[in-house]
Write a structure and sequence with these properties.
- With 113 residues, this protein is α+β, with helices and mostly antiparallel strands.
- Helices cover 51% and strands 19% of the residues.
- It is built from four helices and four strands.
- Strands 1-2 form a two-stranded antiparallel sheet.
- Helix 1 packs antiparallel against helix 3, helix 2 packs across helix 3 and helix 3 runs parallel beside helix 4.
- It starts with a helix and ends in a 6-residue tail after the last strand.
Length: 113
């Protein structure tokens, strides 16, 4: 959670710079790029709470002599493949994969600078 909170802080601090980079690289309007960065920030904010949600649960006596356990485990390796027109997509992908205990591999566009 601390890592994602720090990422959240950095995105908030540099939101304008990130949007300007998207505008320069993709030709988006500044308002559109700011919206993309903000949506990515929302994913990071949500991922901050996932650690506690992933702890699982234990329900006793759901039926006579029956207890229920929910154990959440990582999938393993998650892959993000981004199109050449969208360099902000990784921000929508990797936070959830990482906080759920997975390894994340990013395949960026072949034309990435």
């Amino acid at each position: 959670m601390r890592v994602m909170l720090k990422l959240q802080e950095l995105i908030r601090r540099d939101m304008k710079k990130l949007a300007e980079c998207l505008t320069h690289e993709q030709g988006k309007t500044l308002a559109d790029a700011e919206g993309d960065v903000f949506r990515g920030l929302e994913v990071v904010e949500h991922s901050c709470s996932v650690g506690t949600i992933q702890m699982g649960e234990h329900l006793e006596q759901v039926a006579g002599g029956v207890d229920v356990y929910a154990i959440r485990q990582p999938i393993g390796v998650c892959v993000g493949i981004t199109p050449s027109t969208s360099r902000d997509d990784p921000l929508w992908m990797f936070p959830m994969a990482i906080v759920c205990g997975n390894t994340f591999v990013l395949k960026p566009p072949s034309r990435t600078r």
